[in-house]
Amino acid sequence: MPSTTKVEVKCEKCKRPFEADVIDHIDLHEDPELIRPLRNGKANRVQCPKCRKVMYLDRSIVVNFEPMNLVVVYDPNAKSKEAREALQKHYENITRFNETLLETGRDMEFRVITDLKELRKLLDQYVRQYGL
Ligand SMILES: [Zn+2]
Predict the structure, then answer these.
(1) Fewest Cβ atoms nearer than 10 Å: which of 14, 25, 53, 82?
(2) Where are the domains of the chain?
């Protein structure tokens, strides 16, 4: 299961605020069914409980490409160099203390991606490589 966080979302249509569960971390080998929505930039689908309006949120998502030694932070809003560097630093700090990573002692590559096309390329490569 992907890990999720509760966030407050404001409906684009009726402007009502509501709470939604959004995905913030995906392990591709555990949740291969999420590859398709990720590819389409639609991993975070929420629906307004009042007017039923469906929205796709542009939030950052951590994608673990295991068994490739690659972790991607996809954030379509981190356009500036500063924003990307801040994300990179943030996730390096988290993973430095991640027990699983410490145990295996593997070198993980971290990449911050803001362009959906770039994320797609990596996902396609992953699918091809692991025959999903
Ligand atoms: Zn609404």
Answers:
(1) 82
(2) 23-43+58-130
CA 71/CA 74 separation, integer angstroms: 10
Global pTM value: 0.84
Please list, residue by residue across 41-54, b when 16 or more beta carbons sit within 10 angstroms of its beta carbon and e when fewer do.
eebbebebeeeeee
Q: Ligand 1 centre and the CA of 41: distance in Å? A: 21
* Residue range 70-99: mean pLDDT, rounded: 82
CA of 12 to the centre of ligand 1 (A): 7
46: left (phi > 0), else alpha (psi -120 to 50), else beta? beta
39-84 tens-digit pLDDT: 999 999 999 999 999 999 988 899 999 898 898 999 998 889 998 8
Q: What one-character DSSP code corresponds to residue 33?
A: G
Q: Which two tokens stand for residue 19?
A: 């709470």
Distance 112 CA to ligand 1 centre (A): 32
Q: Side chain identity at 41, as an amino acid letter?
A: G
Query: Where in the chain does DSSP place strands (E)?
Result: 3-10, 17-27, 45-47, 54-56, 61-64, 70-74, 109-113
